[in-house]
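Feature request, filed as a ticket because there's no other form

It would be nice if the structure record came with a short human-readable summary line next to the tokens. Right now we just get the raw output. Example of a typical job, pasted below so the devs can see what we mean:
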Amino acid sequence: MTELLVVIGIIILVVGIAMPSITTAWKKADRARTAGDLQAIATALEAYKQDHGDYPRVRFEAGITNTADRPNPPTGAQILCQALISPALATELGAPANQRRKQDGADGPGFRVRGTTGRVYGPYLPPERFKVRTPGVATEPNPPGYLTMCILDRYDKPILYFPASATKPNITLTANGVPGFVHSDAPTGNGPQSEFSLYDADDNFVHFRRSATDPDAVRRMRLMLGDRDMNGIIQSATGEAAATTGPFLLWSAGPDEQFGPNADAAPDRTTLDAQDVGRCDDVTNFLQ
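Raw output as currently delivered:
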């Protein structure tokens, strides 16, 4: 009996020693698979551009402003899903009039841009490969929430999409009072400012917030993109270098399910800085 207890104790000890390594390996494998998913999405975005002449844009629909008709503008994550998969019924019966966007006769994935008889575009991604759902909702209602559905990562967090401004502003300067690299009007909500900055943090601002009064939501994004002092522009004289100036950003929260670095990840706790970026487990198309 004593020998059996010794054996059991040894097994428990070995499992305890090995468990952190096993957990780390699992997380690395998940991050690698997520990186593959982002690459597939990037390829699909290029195919979308081939068909339509531009990448999907995050904007208010024509005739819709930040009013009672649409109190919340679409996020980049929602636009990405609508453009690449478009997972909805041809007509969303029962939905309020101002929410019935997909009335093109294309039942299921894919969409028409003109009428109900033209070519069906997409889906640009295989729907069976990706989880498509409204974040935080276990089962979509009938009809599905077309406007709120996103492509989810392996942890059921939305994959964020930030298209770069087509005007290619100078990322080292501030123009019209707007930083040229990453800008945000949040939480004032004055509307998109992407024509003045390369990336508009407001495209997915809500996903970076960790509380209603989170002061670091946009700063996390800027820091991840190489803006060390987090002022929205890139200053090479201070050692800053943009992590990317590509045509779009794709962003997964990773195993910790939080977007951006944590201030307490490095030894200098409570200070959000470059050390925290090195410990961040987010998966993106610009920083692996």
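Something like this underneath would help us a lot:
The helical segments are 2-52, 76-84, 205-208, 217-224, 274-278.
Confidence is low (pLDDT under 50) at residues 61-71.
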